[in-house]
Amino acid sequence: MESHRLDSTRDALAHNVRWLRALRRLSQSKLAAEAGLTQGQVSAIELSKANPTMDSIERIGRVLGVEVDALFAKPERGKL
Asked: Distance between CA atoms of 71 and 15, rounded to whole angstroms?
């Protein structure tokens, strides 16, 4: 059963990358290409199955137009 709770830092990162990517109407492939990653790496990040490097996280933030700390922010319940 999939948990929708954002209890961990990895879950917050996954949620925020997925949400921001959708907000900017980017496919996983497009985000991956612009961040120098593979589509599989982006998918694993969005599914909380990856432990990305800080370099990867910084590149994702750059493509999504946000600071790294925004990628780790736990959204308020009901807000995102």
From this structure: 9
